[in-house]
Amino acid sequence: MTSAPLAARLSIPSGPLFFPVTAYGHDGAVDPGVYREHVRRGVEAGAAAVFACCGTGEFHALVPEEFETCVRAAVEAAEGRVPVIAGAGYGTALAVRYARLAEAAGADGLLAMPPYLVTAGQEGLLRHYREIAAATSLDVIVYQRDNAVFTPASVVELARTEGIIGFKDGLGDLDLMQRIVSAVRSEAPGDFLYFNGLPTAELTGLAYRGLGITLYSSAVFCFAPEIALAFHRALNTGDDVTVNRLLDGFYRPFVDLRARGRGYAVALVKAGVRLRGLDVGEVRPPLHEPAEDHVKQLAQLIDRGYALIEEGE
């Protein structure tokens, strides 16, 4: 176990960032035992951190009591080997409540997701995230996507805010990200962290690496950690031959399949976990299960991905 500050523990990309799915039993209730096993397997496979109850973990579908149960289970499964970061979201008051539940459950940090429904101005967004950061002793990573898009000046202010240590980009505007990185480097120098948070972030890994952003979330790690680790090693050692082989043969086809259904960024990943032998249940509404043919195609893609990493050995 280590008590090093969260930013230091995350700054060296030792492996992909693991966003586990949330396990439900056949009655639809959260299954802490299966969830704990899912997290344990991911940590032992080489994840650099566990991001519990975030987007892939269906944060939107969990009531506060279920959220706290899952975060606590993730902390127990991780056993201090890697940090556990929990999601927090909705309006400011609820986000603060989730933040405090995460702290009580033993989390090491927070991923602060966009506020619910409203489209706020920069001043309101800054106030929202500052209140989350002030609510607990946990370090906060701010997630840019959807209705929470920041100007470079606003990210400078985030970087100057005590308790906010990083910025996860789920928007994919590389011009904006370059301006953000430059502005923070010039006006708030320090160890501020950046994360590629796009769905199937491996597909844009080369582009983000060009900005100096090497930390990224990997949904594929949930169901095919060996493929995700092979890609991660290749990306971070400059082995672009392997990167491109996996992009062409596995990741691009996976993204094409993911695009065939709304909500597949979660539902298809959960199907992948089940295909690999861990019964984590189905997604909760309003998400829906992938079509049977799409699950068959996913199984074939997984086999192809493993064959591709064997070719490179």
Summarize the structure.
This protein is α/β, with parallel strands linked by helices. The chain has helices at 6-11, 32-45, 64-78, 92-104, 122-135, 152-159, 174-187, 205-210, 225-237, 240-258, 264-275, 292-311, and strands at 17-18, 49-52, 84-88, 109-112, 139-144, 164-169, 193-196, 215-218.
Protein traits:
313 residues; globular
Notes on the structure:
The protein is an alpha/beta fold. It is built from 12 helices and 8 strands. The protein has helices at residues 6-11, 32-45, 64-78, 92-104, 122-135, 152-159, 174-187, 205-210, 225-237, 240-258, 264-275, 292-311; strands spanning 17-18, 49-52, 84-88, 109-112, 139-144, 164-169, 193-196, 215-218. Strands 1-2-3-4-5-6-7-8 form an 8-stranded parallel β-barrel, surrounded by 5 helices. The protein is globular. The model has no long low-confidence stretch (mean pLDDT 96).
In the predicted model, the low-confidence regions spanning at least 5 consecutive residues are none
Largest sheet: 8 strands, parallel, barrel
Strand portion: 5-15%
Distance between the termini: 32 Å
Q: What is the number of E strands?
A: 8
- In spatial order, strands of the major sheet run 1-2-3-4-5-6-7-8
Helix content: 40-55%
User: Residue-averaged pLDDT, rounded?
Assistant: 96
Structural class: alpha/beta
